[in-house]
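Quick sanity check, FAD-binding oxidoreductase:
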Amino acid sequence: MTEHFRSFGLVTPPTPRAIHADDAIALLKGGQAKDGSLLAYGNGRSYGDSCQNHVGVVVDMRSLDHIRAFDAETGVLEADAGVLLSDIIAHAAPHGFFPAVVPGTQFVTLGGAIANDVHGKNHHRRGTFGCHVESFTLLRSDGKTYRCSAADNPRLFAATIGGMGLTGLILSASIRLMRVQSLDIVEKATPFRDLGEFFDLAAAADLANEYAVAWIDQLAGGRGSGRGLLFTGNHAEHGSHVASRAGRNLSVPFQPPFNVLNRPFLAAFNAAYRWKKGRATVPRQTSYHGFFFPLDGMRDWNRLYGPKGLFQHQSVVPEQAARIVVPELLAAARQVGQASFLTVLKRFGSIRSPALLSFPRPGYTLTLDFPNRGEKTLRLLAVLDRITVEAGGAVNPYKDARMSAATFAASFADWPRLEALRDPAFMSDFWARTAGSIDLRRRGAEAAE
C-alpha cells in the first residue's frame, strides 16, 4: 500500500507501512503475527501517535464498513469496526435514534470510538461511548476470536474499551443508541464575563440540558480574562429525521507553507465569533452538524496550521481544583504568547465508564489547540502537564504526541493492568514511548537489585 497513514495533528511522521484488514485477520488467525507488528488504524482522527506504529504496520480497517443489523425498537445496532459514525447516524436517524455519545467529529470509526472511549458534550448524562457498548468481537494473536461483554470475557471487555487498540483487532461491535425526538438541536448561548461566572453556571446548565459546552476566548487578558460563551442544547421536539451531508464539499485543497491560524487572525476571529454567537441568547433550532461537528464542514482543516502541524492538549482536573487550575492553564499559554484556535471547557459528570483506562472523570476538561512552534510549544505543553498532574488531574492520551512517561503514569495509575492484557502482537508509538519506557526502567531497576 502506497498511502501514508498520518495522525490528525500532523506533527509526527506518517506510518509508511500498512496492510488491509483481511490480510491482518489472516495473519492473526494463522498465529503468524509477530510481536509489536500490528495496530488498527481507523480514519486517522487521533491527534497524536496512539494511531501509529513505526516499528510494525498499521491495519487499514476502513474496508470493514458494513452495518449488520439494527433493531428499530430497542436502538441496538451491530456494525463492523470500520463503519463511520456518520454512517451510523444516517442509518438510525429515520427510526428516531442517535448515538448516545458523539465526539467533535462524525468521521471516526466505530472501532476507534470504542478503543479511545470517546466522550461528548453530554458526559454528565450519558457518560462515555463505552457506557453504551453491548458487546464486540475481538481477534487476538492466539488465533482466537473472543466475544466480549460485561458478562463474557469481562477483563478483555474493560481493557479494550479505552485500550487504544492494544488488546487485539476489534472486528465488529453492538452498541445501544438513544431515542431522540429529532436530529435538530435547540441551542442557547449564554455569555459569561469570566471563569468564575462560568463555574457558577455550569452545574445548573448540566442539570437542565442534555448537552453543555463552553467556548473560551483564550487570548483575552486583563478584565476580559476567561470570558466566553456557554452553549447548551437539547434535541428539538419537531425537526429533521434525515441525516445530511452539508458542508462536505468544502476543503483546504493544499498544505499552506505557513500557519494560517496566527495570533492576529485568531484575535479577529475570536472577536467576531463572540459577537455573532453571543447574540443568540434566545434558544434557536439548528442542525446537528452545526452543533456537534462544526469543523467537519471543512475537510482537512488541520492543514491550516501549516506544514509543522498542531498539538492538541486536553486535560481534566477535579472539580474542587478547577477554579484555580483552569485559569492557571490559560494564563500559562498567554504568558508565552501561544494562541489556541479551539479552546473548549466542559464539565464531566460522575458516570463511570466500564473501561479500564478512560480519560473522563468527575471534574472539568479543558482543550487547547496550538500550532507547532517547536521547542517553545513543547515547553509550554510540559508546563500544562505539570499543572494538571499536580492538581490530581490527567492528560488525554489519544490527543497526545509527546507527553512523558511520568505524566502518563500519573494520569493513569492502572496502566500496568492494560499492559498485562495487551496482545503481544499489538503496539503503538504512544505505548512504546510511555508505558514501554516505564516498563523498561522498572525491569532495569529490578535487575539491578
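Posting the structure with no commentary besides this: The mean pLDDT is 91.
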